[in-house]
Amino acid sequence: MDVPLYAWLAVFGIIAVMLAVDLFAHRKAHVIGVREAAIWSVIWVLIGISFGVVIWVTAGAEFGQQYYAGYLIEKSLAVDNVFVWAIIFAAFAVPRQYQHRVLFLGVLGALVLRGIFIAAGAVLIENFSWILYVFAAFLIFTGYRMIRTRNEHAHPEKSQVLRLFRRFIPMTETFHGQRLLVRKNGILLATPLLAVLVLVEVTDVVFAVDSIPAIFAVTSEPFIVFTANAFAILGLRAMYFLLADLMHRFVYLKIGLSLVLIWVGVKMLLLDVFYIPTTVSLSVIALIIAVSVMLSLRATRGQGRREFEAAPVGSFREATPEELAQMEPVWRRSARTPEQKAQNAEQKAEQKAEQKKVNETLR
C-alpha cells in the first residue's frame, strides 16, 4: 500500500481539527451527561467508519477490511481501558466536571506514544520478520492471563508510578478547577489532576503493549495501523462517559477480549502455514465481541446505571473559594520580602517532613 505524503498530512489535519472542535465544545468544565456522551460517541464512530469507507474506495476491499478489523480490535480493547480509568477517577474522587480535560490531555499523549510504538513495530517487522512470532506468542499468553485474572483489577494505590510521583513531586490535596499545577506561598505544587493524568498515560502505554501487536496481526500497513488506532482512541472520552456507570454489567466482556487476543495471536502464528482471509478474521472478531456483550447484558438484566466506587488513595477535595482566591500565578513569581522567603523555607521543610512520613507509610 503506497501512501503519499499528502494522505498522512490530511489525516493529521483531520485529527487536529477534530481535537480542536472537541476542545471548543468542552472549553468550560461541566458534567457530561449520558445524552451528550451518546451523541459524541455516535459522531466519533461515524467518523471512524467513514474513514474506512474512504480506504475501501481508494485502496480496495482488502485494505478496507483490514482497517475495520483493526478499528474493531482497538475499539473493543479500549473498553478495558475505560474500566481502569473509572477506577482511577473513583480512587482520586475526581469531580465529573474535571474528568474530560484529563482524558483530553491523555488522548493527546496516547496519540503521540502510539505513533512512536507503531513506527517502532513497523521497523521491527520489516527488518526482523520473525518478530511476528514473538508478537503472536505474547498475544496468546496475554489472552490466557486475562482469562485467569478477569475478576482482578489493579488499584492505583498499588501503582509504583503513583508511589514515585508522591515521593518526588509535592502535591496538594485539593482540586483547583482544571489546573494541573498551582503555586502556594511561592511553592509550585501538583494538583491531584496531574497525578491522575500521569496514571492515565501510563495505563495507555500498558494497553498499547497489547493492542498494537494485535492490530499488526490483521495488517502490516503502518498507515492503517495508525489511523485505526487514532480514530478508535479519539472516541474514548465519549465512550468513558457513556459506559463508566455501566461497567458492572459487562461481566463477560473481558473473556471476549481475551479470546480476541488469542484468536489474532493464532492467526499470526499460522501466517506462513495457513492464510486466514481478512473477511474471516473480521467476522470472528465481531462475533466474539457481540456474543460477549449480549451474554453480559442478558446476565445483568434489570441492573441500572450506578456510579463506580473504589477505595480512596487520599483525602482529596475541591478548593474553597478562599483557597482559590489565594492562588498565585504558576509561571511567574511575585516579588517577596526576606520575611516571606523565610516563611516559604519553613513551609518547604514542613512539606518535606510530611512527605517523608507519607513515604514511610507507603513502604
TrEMBL record:
Residue stretches of biased makeup (Basic and acidic residues): 347-363
Compartment(s) where it occurs, according to its Swiss-Prot or TrEMBL record: Membrane
Membrane topology: Multi-pass membrane protein
Region (Disordered): 328-363
Keyword set, alphabetical order: Membrane, Transmembrane, Transmembrane helix
Pfam families: TerC
Membrane-spanning parts: 6-25, 37-57, 77-95, 102-124, 130-147, 187-217, 223-243, 250-270, 276-297
Transmembrane helix in keyword set: yes
UniProt entry tagged with the keyword Signal: no
PANTHER family: MEMBRANE BOUND PREDICTED REDOX MODULATOR, THYLAKOID MEMBRANE PROTEIN TERC, CHLOROPLASTIC
Family affiliation: Belongs to the TerC family.
Annotated protein name in UniProt: TerC family protein
Lineage summary: Bacteria, Bacillati, Actinomycetota, Actinomycetes, Micrococcales
